[in-house]
Design goal:
By secondary structure, the chain is an alpha+beta fold. It is 16% helix and 23% strand.
Length: 116
Amino acid sequence: MMHFGDVPVYLYREPVDFRKQINGLGLIVETAMGRSIFDGGVFVFCNKRRDKLKVLYWDTTGFCLWHKRLEQDKLMWPKKHDDEIINWNHEQLDWLLRGFNVSQLKPHKPLKYNAI
């Protein structure tokens, strides 16, 4: 399983033609997402059938492209809203890869106390 620490994870909600490789996906990052691939983010794309995803990132020495294909299930890809881009953390990406519906998982609310 991948682990990216505190690196931001960006999901592109529109389905992507999976014939696209590093250059084509990098162009989506820069033009449609308005981000720089070189800023340290991880960019996640899904196909129309929701049975494949690609993860693209720059690791300071070159591009990395990771591809996952599900054999029977579908990815619980977030529904499209006005915003085409979702900003997640590595834990949410891990949940997606493990088959969870991330939009329904809610962590405990943080508590703040001044005294015991």
